[in-house]
Amino acid sequence: MSRQHAQLPVSSPRLLASAIGVALTAGSAGHMVFADEKTDSKASGNAIALDATAITGEAQDPTSYQVEKASSPKYTAPLVDTPRSVTVIPQQVLKDTGALNMQDALRTVPGITFGAGEGGNPQGDRPFIRGFDAQGDTYLDGVRDTGSQSREIFAVENIEVSKGPNSAIGGRGAAGGSINLVSKKAHLGNSFDGGFTWGSDQTQRYTMDGNYQFSDTAAGRLNLMSHESNVAGRDSVDYDRWGIAPSLAFGLGTDTRVNLDYYHLESNDTPDSGIPYTIPAGGSAARTKSNPDKPYAGGDHSNFYGLDRDFRKGRTDTATFAIEHDLSDSLTIRNTLRHGTSMQDYILTQPDDSKGNVNNGSVWRRANTRVSNTETTTNQTDLFGNFYVAGFKNSFSTGVEYTREESSKSSYNVNTDTTPRTSAVTTNCNPGLIGAASGYNCTSLSNPNPNDPWNGAISRNYAGTDTQSDTYALYAFDTLELSEQWLVNMGLRYDHFETGYKTYTNAGNTTAKGSDTSEFVTGQFGIVYKPAPNGSIYASYATSATPPGNTLGEGQEGNPLGGTPDRNGNLLKSDMEPETTKNYEIGTKWDLLNDRLSLTADLFRTEKENARVQVNTTSYENAGKTRVQGIELSASGKITDKWQVFAGYAYMDSEQVDGGDLPANKANNGNELPNTPKNSASLWTTYQVTPKLTIGGGAFYVDDVYGSVANTTMVDSYVRYDAMAAYKLSKNVDLQLNVQNLTNETYYDKAFSTHFANQAAGRTALLSTNFHF
């Protein structure tokens, strides 16, 4: 049987990217290994020189774990004076921890978990920040990065995580916070970084990052990546992706600067279908909060319940044109124009418990499918700088944004019952139906075979849904310095968000349509007291708004657009209101040890009101309320010249306060929110033993996590340990060994509300050879 899906040209370009990287690194390896150790500093003509606007968001020392300022001009003060929780994961942490994607990187930030899904975005990034779904709240260089994706970091300089409602800065959504990826851009100076990583489970990864200055004010940069791997402890799962990210910059060091950037990523994976939950003898409907069900693989945690029909392909293309001009020494205007597309195409087998199975040793293989494309065009204009009024300094940023987003989704027909069988197959799955009796749609819990001769039929189903939206926004931010000790931080944003959709048949005939228009104002306000130049104490308030249609139907869509049907069955304008979230926070931030180490602590309380709750099969109402409150601690930077640390702790007390009047929802009042661990902590530290040898390690703890607000499914807490060692063979060549999940802990890092949870990778060893000049 052949797969029925759109073919993506993954292999050839990926191999080309690999070949280029290997050729460049191999060609220079000989002389680099034996490079003169006395050349500790490059000639001044080769030194990297960044203009003033290019260094924001980077550590002052490129090897430091400490970052002084966020990249976006909307953050109008250094991080130590910003009255909200902001964590920046710098490039050195990404390198030292051996992170290979965004999820790897974010494990170093407590208070963030990842959710699973059965449809929409089952395998892509679905982060939860402070207990709130943030899958639509990822940004690239301050511009929303729409669409379901599994994000790579080969072209990422650092990652900025802002916690707490953040609509004032990013627009709609951001109920629990937002994530901003800062891309690698062309800069002055010549540099080359290349490397290859070989590891357990057939891991092969090649990267190249080359920057070339071709005039006094212009430069180009190219990042390449090729990655192939299986997954430790999981049968049949594999990842295959490649990417390219060129960047051009003109006018560097002058008053007018232009950046042209492009990003392309393609992937072709065998997705992990996860591990089914146990269920009580009475079936999944008999689950209770007092004894929640947990994932169980029948005795072998490497079991894979999918079939060789499964696949997941992705493609992301993003083009950015940005021009920036200094109107004066204290005033800059910037315009960013971006167009991007994101595609996902998959057939994923879900280990389904809805056929009366699992408790009797069998698993129903249910196919979830999707073909979707999301296209986004954004133009964002920012004016920022500083000015004085009545002797008081104002650091400000203001701007306008227009964004058009279009999403199209359809699916596959997967006929799972193509030969005569008993009628029980369609309603049940039991040991007597395992294998050929069910057309291999019913399999063994303890011994599934992904190579079963499944002979069902697959064809494209062009029936689907088209969704589009338009965003018009105005925003302004200001940090007012009342004195050396007192600062006031203010931000305000107005959004006009229009969205509509239509559903259609396989023949293209429209079956329903609906629309919604939301207007909302969000803001932030904070007061900062500085008892010393290197420290601050703050209190802040911030809001967010999540309108219907927030994710354009991609991912776990909790934003229905349906209204009252008219006589023709068409859906009218929605009367749903945006969900509103507000956050109260007090905290303190200090830069200690000669400003080498940053310490933060904060107390927060986040409340969501007007939460959408389902009252029947077709209707929703704004009736819900949830709350998350807790404490966060963090440390980043150098304790000594040789000892670095990147650590944090989060305590989150979550609760569904009001689920609405529907008895089934009201019964969950007082329960914990899904994907919200009470305690989570991370510690990553390195020590330079000698000028050539650095060792490091980390521990990552996540408390029990519920899969649903009913608290009837959950995954257990875990501690994961990592270790690393890096050795400089010469100035130009170094080796690094990372061992992740050192104790080979079996744990689950994504919990779905029903059916299954996703198991994390087992022990993984990665040996990297890196070249620099």
Describe this structure in words.
The strands form four sheets. The chain has a 22-stranded antiparallel barrel. It is built from five helices and 36 strands. With 773 residues, it is mainly beta. It has a single domain (11-416, 440-772), classed as TonB-dependent receptor, beta-barrel domain (Maltoporin, Chain A, Beta Barrel), CATH 2.40.170.20. Helices cover 6% and strands 51% of the residues.
Give the gist of this structure.
This protein is mainly beta and 773 residues long. The chain contains five helices and 36 strands.
Fold topology:
Elements (H helix, E strand, L loop, with lengths): L10 H23 L52 E4 L1 H7 L4 H5 L5 E4 L11 E3 L2 E2 L4 E3 L2 E2 L11 E8 L3 H4 L6 E7 L7 E9 L3 E11 L5 E12 L7 E13 L5 E14 L5 E2 L34 E18 L2 E22 L9 E28 L2 E24 L26 E3 L12 E25 L4 E19 L5 E23 L2 E12 L32 E14 L4 E18 L5 E19 L4 E16 L4 H4 L12 E10 L4 E10 L2 E2 L7 E2 L2 E11 L4 E8 L7 E4 L4 E4 L4 E9 L1
Parallel strand pairs: 2-34, 5-8
Antiparallel strand pairs: 1-7, 2-3, 3-4, 5-6, 7-8, 9-10, 9-36, 10-11, 11-12, 12-13, 13-15, 14-35, 15-16, 16-17, 17-18, 17-19, 18-20, 20-21, 21-22, 22-23, 23-24, 24-25, 25-26, 26-27, 27-28, 28-29, 29-32, 30-31, 32-33, 33-36, 34-35
Characteristic terms for this protein:
773 residues, disordered N terminus, Maltoporin, Chain A, 22-stranded antiparallel β-barrel, 6-stranded mixed sheet, single chain, globular
Report the uncertain regions.
1-12, 15-59, 418-425
Averaged pLDDT: 87
Share of residues in helices = under 10%
Radius of gyration from the CA trace?
26 Å
Can you tell me the CATH architecture?
Beta Barrel
Instruction: From the 3D structure, determine the CATH topology.
Output: Maltoporin, Chain A
Please give the domain count. Answer: 1
Cα distance, first to last residue? 50 Å
